[in-house]
Structures are given as structure tokens and as C-alpha cells.
Specification:
CATH class of the largest domain: Alpha Beta
Low-confidence stretches: none
Strand content: 25-35%
CATH architecture of the largest domain: 2-Layer Sandwich
Distance between the termini: 23 Å
Structural class: alpha+beta
Radius of gyration: 19 Å
Largest sheet: 7 strands, mixed
CATH topology of the largest domain: Ribosomal Protein S5, domain 2
Length: 318
């Protein structure tokens, strides 16, 4: 066994109507180094992981031990280093990144006893829904189902002209708080609305039929109930397409808002100003960043260079 390194993309889940079913990998990344050790140590690099534990209570360590147990191996002391460009609790699938990354690194460390689908099953079980973990594992756009026992997915290669504008508020929003805002029951009309819209969204993304995305991204299951948690969100989603977006949605559980855009659009600056100014008018300071769908999901990389050199691309293609 030796040091292994993996790279995992962020993801945006739901994409409007695809609640717990659709996810798109994005080109924000986390890197994990993992190696056997005499005593467990977790090193957090960068400033986006303040407050996370650095001992055996860390999620990365716990997930790795789950892999070892599933493989019939014993508990292993680990030296783990973790760097991430992905903001925590902002709707970019940070927990899915940790789960998929730790599964992949631990699996590589013991010689890959599990295949990709095995990792997907474990990840969906641990996360409780398959959208973010599917996108993080497989890359691209993933439509997935989880029946409580088994997960299935279909991967869509993102259209080359598709990109995304993310408006990232300065505050965190936990998935638990966002889920608590949802009703226990919804009407049949709202259920049918989302079924039809999510079906059309998948078809539009699969075929590159950009003109259908604005209508297809409308939602009645979660966004209307979560809108009070992100002041300005309702207007951003309603009017983003009037300012050059193909469509817009709450990214995952939020608070980030994501607008899909045609790369050939000449209205990108207009859209960016609209999103940022609308949130600011409602007292929400937000950063904006342009992202591309990530075609690659979980990747194992060479681990010869120090981790931060690899992150910066010093002497490496990663």
C-alpha cells in the first residue's frame, strides 16, 4: 500500500424540478491524499474547511473505514490530507465530494476491490440520495434513482456550449435547515408539474434543446418553500432568463443560485449584474463565478508531487 490521491468535482443538484434526482458536476474540485500511518492524522489545507475535525471523527476517516470493513479488512490508521476549492454548506455537494473522494481513495489504497457501481451504491446509501454523489462519481449530468436499497443512474454528456453562473451568498445554509422548510405532503397537481418538467429538462439537456430549459427548470416541490431562506432568490429565478440565462435554479439545498447559460451568449455581463444586484437589494452579499460542467468525475491522480503543488499544477497536468 502507498499514498494515493484522488480529485473530485463539485456538483449542483436538483436543477429545479429534479429534486434528489438530477445532478451536474462542476469544475470546482477537492483533492484527497490518503496513506497508511502509525497514527491517524487529518490535515486540512486551505481556508474553506474551518471547524472540520482533524481526528477520527472526520468524515473522510469514517468513510474510509467503511470501505475497509466492506472489503473484509481491519481498521487502518490513516494519514489524510484534504484540499478543496468547494465552499461548504453552499449547495455544491460538499458532503458528496467528501463521501465519494474518501470511498475512491480508500478503495485505491487497498487495491480496488470495488468497482464504480459498488462505490455508487455505498455513496447513495451513505448520502441518502443519489444526485450529488452520482455527479461527483461519474461526472457530467446524472439522472438517478434511489429506492432505499439500490441506486441506478443514466449519465448525460453536457453540451459543449453549456456553462453556468453561480451566485454564492456569503452565508451558509445547512441541508438540514433547507429540508426542514419542505412540507411533508404536496398536491397531486404539484407532483405532476414536477414530473413533467423534470422529464422535459432531462430531454433538453440530453439533446441540447436549449430553448426548452427555461420552462423545464420550473419547480413546485422545493424552491418555493426554500425561497424565504435566500432573500432575492424568487426574483432571480423568475427573471434570470429575461437577462440572458437559459434557466435558473437553487443549487442543491442552497443558498447558491445557479443559472445555465449558452457560452455564445452576449449577455453574460448583464446576467451577472442582475443576479448580484438583485441579491444585494435584498441584503444578501454574494460572489459570482462562471463554471463549466465537469465531464470527469472521481479521478485517481499520480501522487508523487506534494499535494499543493499538484493543486497548483506545478510540474503536473492536474
Amino acid at each position: 500500500m502507498r499514498n494515493v490521491r484522488v480529485k473530485v468535482p463539485a456538483s449542483s443538484a436538483n436543477l429545479g424540478p429534479g429534486f434528489d434526482a438530477l445532478g451536474m458536476a462542476l469544475n470546482l474540485y477537492a483533492w484527497i491524499d490518503m496513506a497508511p500511518a502509525e497514527k491517524t492524522k487529518v490535515t486540512l489545507l486551505g481556508g474553506k474547511m474551518q471547524g472540520l475535525p482533524t481526528d477520527k471523527s472526520n468524515l473522510l476517516y469514517k468513510i474510509a473505514q467503511r470501505v475497509f470493513a466492506e472489503a473484509g479488512a481491519g481498521e487502518m490508521e490513516l494519514d489524510i490530507s484534504f484540499y478543496s476549492d468547494i465552499p461548504l454548506a453552499r449547495g455544491f455537494g460538499s458532503s458528496a465530494v467528501a463521501i465519494v473522494g474518501a470511498l475512491g481513495a480508500a478503495n485505491a489504497l487497498i487495491g480496488h476491490p470495488f468497482g464504480q457501481d459498488d462505490l455508487f451504491q455505498l455513496a447513495a446509501e451513505i448520502e441518502g440520495h443519489p444526485d450529488n454523489v452520482g455527479a461527483a462519481l461519474y461526472g457530467g449530468i446524472v439522472a438517478a434513482v434511489w429506492d432505499g436499497a439500490r441506486a441506478s443512474h443514466v449519465r448525460i454528456e453536457p453540451h459543449p456550449r453549456l456553462e453556468a453562473l453561480a451566485a454564492i451568498p456569503s452565508f451558509e445554509l445547512s441541508t438540514g435547515k433547507a429540508r426542514a422548510a419542505l412540507p411533508e405532503l404536496v398536491s397531486r397537481a404539484d407532483a405532476v408539474f414536477n414530473l413533467s418538467h423534470s422529464s422535459m429538462l432531462v430531454a433538453a439537456l440530453a439533446t441540447g434543446h436549449f430553448g426548452a430549459i427555461r420552462t423545464a427548470m420550473e419547480d413546485r416541490l422545493h424552491q418555493p418553500y426554500r425561497a424565504p431562506l435566500v432573500p432575492g432568490m424568487e426574483r432571480c429565478l423568475r427573471e434570470a432568463a429575461d437577462h440572458g440565462a437559459l434557466g435558473a435554479a437553487l443549487s442543491g439545498a442552497g443558498p447558491t443560485l445557479i443559472a445555465l447559460v449558452d457560452t455564445e451568449s452576449d449577455r453574460k455581463s448583464e446576467l451577472e449584474s442582475f443576479m448580484k444586484n438583485t441579491l444585494a437589494e435584498h441584503g444578501v452579499q454574494a460572489d459570482t463565478v462562471w463554471l463549466k460542467p465537469a465531464s470527469a468525475g472521481l479521478e485517481q491522480l499520480p501522487a508523487e508531487l506534494p499535494l499543493m503543488d499538484a493543486v497548483r499544477g506545478v510540474g503536473s497536468s492536474c
